[in-house]
Design brief:
heterodimer; A: about 250 residues; mainly alpha; two-stranded antiparallel ribbon; 10 helices; B: about 270 residues; alpha/beta; Rossmann fold; six-stranded mixed beta sheet; 10 strands
Amino acid sequence: MDFDAIWMICLRDIIRHFRDRIRLLSSITRPVLWLLIMGTGLKNSFNVFGISYVHFIFPGIIAMNLIFAAMQSTISIIWDREFGFLKEILVAPISRTSIVLGKALSGSAIAFIEGLFVLIFAPLIKINISLVNLSLLLPQMFFIALVCTSLGIVIAARMTSFEGFGAISNFIIMPMFFLSGAMFPIDNLPHWINFIVRVNPLTYGVDLLRRTILGVRFFSFYIDFLFLIIFFLIMLYIGIFEFNKH
Amino acid sequence: MNNYTFEKIIEVKNLSKYFGQIIALEGIYFEVYKGEVFGFLGPNGAGKTTTINILCTLLSPSFGVVIVNGFNVITSPNNVRRSIGIIFQELTLDERLTAYENLNFHGMIYHLPKKIRRERIKEVLDMVGLYTRKDYIVRTFSGGMKRRLEIARGLMHRPSVLFLDEPTIGLDPQTRQHIWEYILNLSQREKITIFLTTHYMDEAEICQRVGIIDHGKIVDLDTPSALKNKYNVVSLNEVFLQVTGVDIREEGADEKTRLGQFLRARNKLR
């Protein structure tokens, strides 16, 4: 374990992220668009479990910002590879494992902060989160960000071009978001969708958040947590393996 | 000029590298002595960069033994990494960070304590004349300034061997001149071994010994004057053309194409 290296990678990514105004702006406007336009527009048409639609999708919008930010931050791996900075890191006397851990932590930290941007809107749409729930919610958000980042690292490590990453991100981020129960309840779905929903880690992430924020759930806490942690460990293992092979 | 001893700092024995069916290096042997300025010449695609990448542990050899500063690149890569500094052919700075941040992060991954990092940053930035620009974002620097910053960074952890892969490519003659004076001074003063590749034959003249590589094999290796005598010509340029022929070689995609690819992909994602 090499804390200097992990800290350096995190610090660098965070500095870079907050210097990029456009990305920062899009991470704030994205949830506003979804919440205010989709949520308000569909509020009168849908009512899930007696919860208003805008409330129902709120945890999903947090998850959306988490997965978008997490995946985007892992693009820095491809950027670094194409523009040389990865070489500077790879010729340094640090282990490949600490590079992956550093990337995982920096991606999650950035995604977590972008998740917080959504949380700010909670009072605006009249969602009250008690302090106890908030203290449960924050670590859950960080954990979901970590799971998404680890998936992003595996994809980025195997990618050789930016085009590929753009396409795969669109094929992965959007379906993962839509098929996670973020926008509609996941009971009574056709079999083939049901299958995808159940292997989608974000489903369990959204379920965790929704339980903590609104008190409704589809799975038990243990199933959510166990699925996420197993998925995370597998992705981390593959990520480290990919970085270790030349 | 002869400020080197005959103590070997780099030893390459029977080194081969295959990329699938393609043979990049085919059983090459050479040695570099401590304190020497060693030049590696060859046409595009001859195997120069592959050799440097193996010497600095970015690629593993398919066959053969490579020892840098007494450490084997396969069995103790981190010791090799600690012993060397590298200026790559392409820029490897983070252009969104300031000069100071680039150096500070470099110091962190070479495990220099905070206090020493601060001292060394001042020292190396003064050396390349960039201390007053330390808080500027690197993107605003000219090509020559970026190069100087990279040289400063490569020296910050006091390596025993400095690798320079075409360090003056794309620079104007003044900057080239300046950088070479600087590098030569450094090798004299600090007794750093310098391993460089270049396309400019006048730059190769300053080396104590020159190896010429083509099609993955070392075709000749000697002092510049001995090579000129051997082929009975007046310049290294003629030696080079005689040894490697006059055909033009293929080269890979340039950075601009890759930047275009990146921007297109990023726009799709947004």
